[in-house]
């Protein structure tokens, strides 16, 4: 599953390539999330798109990645699933423990 979150449709990156991948890659479930209309992406949003998302590796990148990671880690504690392992596009890894330094993220 790939969820692309941007403020508006026109703010997304690589729209042609992502839409082509959605048509050509059978196993790819692609979703767009527009934060100006729906607010920031949350773990609850992911659960509505794919209830078993916690069972899969999760990656996050972009300017808001650190906030999403913190929210996911808080959610992990409440829901009791084993771990959250996410990386920013720069390769920084966060796994199940909140860091005191923000995760660098590439836009």
TrEMBL record:
Region called Disordered, residue ranges: 79-107
Protein known as: Ferredoxin-NADP reductase
Organism domain of life: Bacteria
Biased composition annotated in UniProt, kind: Low complexity: 82-93
């Amino acid at each position: 599953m790939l969820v692309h979150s941007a403020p508006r449709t026109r703010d997304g990156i690589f729209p042609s390539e992502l839409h082509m991948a959605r048509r050509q890659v059978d196993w790819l479930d692609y979703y767009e999330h527009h934060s100006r209309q729906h607010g920031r992406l949350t773990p609850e949003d992911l659960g509505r798109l794919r209830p078993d998302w916690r069972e899969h590796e999760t990656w996050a990148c972009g300017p808001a990645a650190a906030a999403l990671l913190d929210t996911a880690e808080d959610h992990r504690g409440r829901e009791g699933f084993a771990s959250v392992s996410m990386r920013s596009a720069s390769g920084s890894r966060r796994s199940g423990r909140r860091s005191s330094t923000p995760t660098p993220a590439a836009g």
